[in-house]
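Notes, Module 5: Reading structure tokens.

Key idea: the token line is not a picture. It is a compressed description, and you learn to read it the same way you learned to read a sequence, by spotting repeated patterns. We will look at two proteins. The first is printed below with its tokens.
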Amino acid sequence: MKISSLQLNNLPDKPGVYFFKKEKNILYVGKATSLRDRVKSYFGDDLDFRRGLKIVKMVQGATAIDWKQTDSVLEALILEANLIKKFLPEANTLGKDNKSYNHVIITDEDYPRVILVREHDLKYQESLGFNIKYQFGPFPHALQLKEALKIVRKIFPFRGEKDGLNLKEVGLRKIKSVRKSNLNVELGLSPDFSVVSRNDYKKTIRNIKMFFEGKKNFLLKKLEAEMKQFIKGQEFERAGQIKNQLFALSHIQDIALLKEQNISNSGRIEAYDVAHTSETNKVGVMVVINGGVLETSEYRKFNIRQKGGGDVGALREILGRRFEHTEWPLPKLIVVDGGKAQKNIAEKVLTEFGFKIAVVAATKDERHRVRGFLGNPDIILKNERDILLANSESHRFAIRFHKQKRKKDLLG
């Protein structure tokens, strides 16, 4: 590796986007709350545990690191998505295998909505129920993207997915949707179209478009010019509104994004679950979450071979087959669905393979809702959010795989 310690030490302790490069080719694009801390983390001894073989090879093959500092984590999030889409770096599986990631969509309507749509759903645009005017993404960090939209919406109130135009229109919908729509107007998150004109709302949509295109500086100049025009025309109330937007854009408060970045730095977590109907069509799955991100390309399905043995026997088979794959990166934490029996069998398999990996079991109530955890309390406290996400995703994935297998058997 030809990356010097001087390059690492020159990185700022600020948010932004970083690039691993080989000569002039961009190998990988990532975002960071602290560019210095994030990039230095790639040079620790446990990188292969945390990020996997592809990233290890990428770091070893890189000859330079470059970066672009941003004013906020929110802007780093947007810039990362734009650059992945532009360069399609080889090591960014997020930019190529993005079926589980989200896009920000601005609909093609008289009063456009700004909504999140999953990559998979975009493949079937005819069933979306709306036409697409503008599309941004993919964004790999779903929870951060939702927080980002909340920040943008406070600056530029927009019509959301279920927001109506007026009481007559939304009155045809369910009462809950009506209340939510009205509440968004009252909170200043959605425009009151009895006051806001169609042309003014079009300006708002153009502003949102520019922001997601990464043109914040141009947007600031545009808004400043508009504010001066309103002052010149003695429309001081409207000038004041733009002044507030200028201030908000220049002082973006993305504390929620900083928090999300911090709690999602737990490394690779693997979660396992089993699904069957009275011991028939029994299947198991492994899902992976890495740094708070669901790594769908690393999910695995297992058709259970042994007869009988219940969920515990199936879990033993799954883990045994999984750890035969020495080419797969090792997790720092394993999450199993069940109780003490599942936790014990997982630890027994790990011992047989000579691994010391923490195991957490998610115990459920009669409605299959998590009621508690079994495992090291410190590990659970530190990783609770990711443990819940991994367990929920493994259950969803297992049920889906089981239904597919059952349907296939029914069809012969």
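Here is the second protein, with the sequence above and the tokens below, as before.
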Amino acid sequence: MADSTAALRIPAVRRFAAGRLLSTLAAQMLSVAVGWQLYDRTGSAFALGLVGLVQIIPVVLLALPAGQLADRVPRRNLAAAAHALLFLCASGLALVAWAGGPLWAIYALLFGTGVAGAFRSPSVGAMLPQLVPPELFANANAWMSSGFELASMAGPALGGFLIAFTGGETLTYALAAAAHLFFVGVLFTLPAIAPLPSGKAASVHEALAGLRFIFRTKAFLGAMTLDLFAVLLGGATALLPIFAKDILHVGPTGLGWLRAAPSMGAFSMALIQTRLPHWRQPGRVLLWTVAGFGLATLVFGLSRNFWLSMAALALTGAFDNVSVVIRLTLEQALTPDPMRGRVSSIHYVFIGFSNELGAFESGATAALFGAIGSVVGGGLGTLFIVGLVAVLWPQVAQLAPLNELRAFELPPDELQPTNAASSP
């Protein structure tokens, strides 16, 4: 059995993991507070869906320049700037909640979090491979995922409790701001590794190198497409305030627990994955777990019992965690370091697109067909996407064990991957 704590024995990895845990806690607390605040004030499913839309717009617009910048400046510095902006936005939301500010101010500040996210993802996402050797990527990702899920469990539950206890969202936003500020401090304890000079002027051609790499690496493209459409169609998170208030009748505290349930399942699975040997057929595992995600989503949509709903959401988290670890390890193992910022940025557009636009899709379809119809239809759509990806990208099912994958070497005068990149 592999050493389950190998990655955590590196001091920089431990500090990085602790900082990411707190920043994730902040994001989850902020999310549950925004959802409750908007639905409590408007009673509108569409208002909840707009949260995803205003956050994804800056990600799409800024993805290419953000990824290019992450490959040209120390990623630590860019990550610190992004989390400083997140601190300012969370502080602004606390002020709006305290003063009873207008709805447009909430959406404007959420747009700011989207801007920060566009620069945070390629910088933070590309830092981990600089801290650990390739053979520890899967182990490091399992531990990072464990921290993410622990924070995702505690964040919504704590946020929901504070809203119920204080009668408002101000304290929840303030604590989220403090957590982002703490991560800024942690980042400055890590080495500022300057990227190797590319010898090329910034250009659209260079910015698009990450996108070209992804489209030539068929297994990675299939894995990303699977995640994009599965979460786009199968995500029920944006509608949880409706289920908590109108269907399950459990209030803000129950909302916090519902938001935490997927992370409970994911955290348990992440800990299990730190002790499991490497998947021998990770692509087939990926396809089966996303199918399980779709089935669990169906159960949640049809449930009228709080505990059954909690169990179904926990299963969605457990299945999703396996998908996340496999997908992140694929990105880190196959991508050359000089291109990691651009690939990570495009990857984040896929993931951000699926999560945030999925929130908008859920709100829009719920406004048309009701929350239950939206979730059930999304679960069925996820199962359809699994079958489609298996047919269109057979390379996914043929993936070699993750610990045997290595980054492709690119010629110094060529930004596109070699022909070998099209085979995985």
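Summary for the second protein:
- The CA atoms of residues 348 and 361 lie 18 Å apart.
- Residues 411-424 have pLDDT under 50 and may be disordered.
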